[in-house]
Amino acid sequence: MGFKCGIVGLPNVGKSTLFNALTQTAAAQAANYPFCTIEPNLGEVAVPDPRLETLAKIAHSDAVIPTRLTFVDIAGLVRGASKGEGLGNQFLAHIREVDAIAHVLRCFEDSDITHVEGKIDPLADAATVETELMLADLDSLEKRVDALEKKARGNDKESILALDLVRRAIALLSEGKPARLVARKPEEEQAFAMLGLITAKPILYVCNVEEASAANGNVFSKKVEAKAKSENAASVVISAKIESEIAMLPPAERADYLAAVGLQEPGLDRLIRAGYGLLDLVTYFTAGPKEARAWTITRGTRAPQAAGVIHTDFEKGFIRAETIAYDDYVSGNGEAGARESGKLRLEGKDYVVVDGDVMHFRFAN
């Protein structure tokens, strides 16, 4: 089960520098000119979770395998991208393929790095990108209306529902508001998702600040934070330059470097966790002598489907799940202690897996 978070923004805001640091590779060029990233770059990163190391120590696991998240570095958008300016059509197609958007905004001054709009204004930059994405969605929806109307006249129920959602989305987008704000009922969610709208995706604003502001942000990032709060979106402050330097250091030297710049943890850890939360993901664990492993599922996943993430046979033949809450596993010093204290539960097909559950699945071959 793959989850992709696309890194987007105007050219020269630090997207590729951030991506390189995330993946600790130089796969994405980080050059000071627009469109240095022509094809999207994919990089898988481990999701930091100290619980996994704790479980591995208790279970005496030979291997520790974290859950992972895929980041996609997408080339910079420019004004007019929805009409094909720059490499707009190609970029928009790549954005449609991701599950969530990390929108990088330049929140630093540097005369050596050209800004495509000629000034530093993260809110204006955000508006430029968001406008292009909304225009792309609007164009996509308007092209579907005629065909949906014909099917709706024939009393096709799916088309009637889709047409209603399309019209509501068009009305909102025409007001300059993203499709994620379309009011909808739970039973409409699947049909709405089928529309494949870019501005319906959850968004995280990434404030790329200068080194001195990495710990507490600056005037620019405060404005972005306020914008995110007004939209019920998330934001995170990060210095791509610091993160790229940390990524080049041996692991043993990173703690000292972080302390020297006034940080308790890499900004990338906050970014990864924020991206994980943005996708509404949770983690469950399996732990034993062979390995301790974290598994990614969406919030609300039931036990058989969670088992299916490990192997489809586990879901097909699911019988029950032996489940221990993380805190109970730790306090009992493992499965045996949790079992003795009555903290091991047998859960059936309707059980909704909770973040931190330590699980062992029973299934029929």
Q: How do the strands and helices of this protein lay out in sequence?
A:
Blueprint: E1 4-8, H1 15-23, E2 41-46, H2 50-59, E3 63-65, E4 68-73, H3 88-96, E5 100-106, H4 122-142, H5 145-153, H6 157-174, H7 189-193, E6 203-208, H8 219-230, E7 234-238, H9 240-248, H10 251-260, H11 267-278, E8 281-287, E9 291-298, H12 303-310, H13 312-316, E10 318-324, H14 326-331, H15 335-340, E11 345-347, E12 358-363
Parallel strand pairs: 1-4, 1-5, 3-9, 5-6, 6-7
Antiparallel strand pairs: 2-4, 8-9, 10-11, 10-12
Question: Would you mind describing this structure in some detail?
Answer:
The chain has 365 residues and is an alpha/beta fold. It has helices spanning 15-23, 50-59, 88-96, 122-142, 145-153, 157-174, 189-193, 219-230, 240-248, 251-260, 267-278, 303-310, 312-316, 326-331, 335-340; strands at 4-8, 41-46, 63-65, 68-73, 100-106, 203-208, 234-238, 281-287, 291-298, 318-324, 345-347, 358-363. α8 (219-230) links the parallel β6 (203-208) and β7 (234-238). α4 packs antiparallel against α6 and α5 (145-153) runs antiparallel to α6 (157-174). The chain is flat and about 60 Å long. 38% of the residues are buried. Residues 25-38 have low confidence and may be disordered.
